[in-house]
Specification:
Keywords: Mitochondrion. With about 50 residues, this protein is mainly α. It has one domain. It is about 95% helix and about 0% strand. The chain has 1 helix and no strands.
């Protein structure tokens, strides 16, 4: 009984970590995309 409880808590912890990691990954890629986009538009403007 206790063994399944430990496995269950480990499972929920893993799910939570994955969710947090996924959210962080989304935020990081969003920031990178915005930075790249602003740099790209700046280079386009300066070359025009």
């Amino acid at each position: 009984m206790r063994m399944s409880k430990v496995v269950g808590s480990g499972y929920t912890t893993t799910i939570r970590k994955i969710k947090v990691g996924h959210f962080t990954h989304l935020r990081v890629s969003e920031v990178i995309t915005k930075k790249w986009f602003s740099l790209h538009s700046l280079s386009v403007i300066s070359s025009a």
